[in-house]
Amino acid sequence: MSHPASKNSSGPRQRAQVNPRLDKSLAAYMAAATAAGVSMLAAQPAEAKIVFTPANTTIPLHGSLPLDLNNDGINDFVFSNFFYGQASHLYVDQQAPANQVFHLGAALPAGVRIGNRGSFVDNALMAFQDSRSGILSSYSGPWKDAHQRFLGLKFSVNGETHFGWARLTVTAKGGISATLTGYAYETVPNRPIVTGKISGPDIASPVDPAAMLTPFDTSATLGMLARGADSLAIWRRDGEAAVP
After folding, report:
1. Is 25 a domain residue?
2. Per-residue confidence in pLDDT tens, the chain, 244 aa
3. Is 92 within a domain?
4. Inside any domain, residue 99
5. Are 75 and 67 in contact (CB under 8 A)?
6. How many CA atoms lie within 13 A of 212 on its CB side?
7. Residue 128 sits in which domain range?
8. Is 171 part of a structural domain of the chain?
9. What is the number of structural domains in the chain?
10. pTM, whole model, 2 decimals?
11. How far apart (Å, rounded) are the C-alpha atoms in residues 40 and 36?
């Protein structure tokens, strides 16, 4: 007498058959998901890091002060506080061809974004004071009586562009007196920096740098012409720097 096979038979199980089309779709989905995950990881931007260096250094009259923004031993800019005839000039100049000054050397408030969208020049006249017989006859420039204002800067590190700022206070009393009170730069190449920000990610700023400029006359004055070729050459260079 034969007995029907038991429902709980321990015989070999048969593998469930998957529709070939579904199998291919799952494989394609997994491959796409994996690729997307890898690309997302690869696309993560480098973490922004601002390096701030406090300072309290006077730019000496008849002298200069170099500025090494990233403290790598290479001077990026130089501030000159020089005196020709009876006039004082506070000047900032590049120390490498790729280094430049933001927005004609404007004295910016905190919160201004420094980046590729701005205009840059190689050097800038920050302040000009003309005195005759000990009497102040004129005092002008974007840094006239600027207190804790910011100079936007662009400079090159190993062939890559970085942005930074320098903070200064400028007064005029018997000659221009300027003090560097701190500076900072963004470690990520081509990443903008916001003036006054010393840590954390940068944010966009609605402040228009053009509105922060103090108007001043860049034309050659009779006094500058009277002081000879040196002063005229400075005026000509300033005029070229002022062209947008």
Report:
1. no
2. 444 444 444 455 444 454 555 455 445 544 544 444 433 333 344 566 999 999 999 998 889 999 999 999 999 999 999 988 788 999 999 999 999 999 999 999 999 999 999 999 999 999 999 877 666 678 999 999 999 999 999 999 999 999 999 999 999 877 899 999 999 999 999 999 999 999 865 444 434 444 444 444 444 333 333 344 344 344 334 333 332 2
3. yes
4. yes
5. yes
6. 23
7. 50-241
8. yes
9. 1
10. 0.67
11. 6
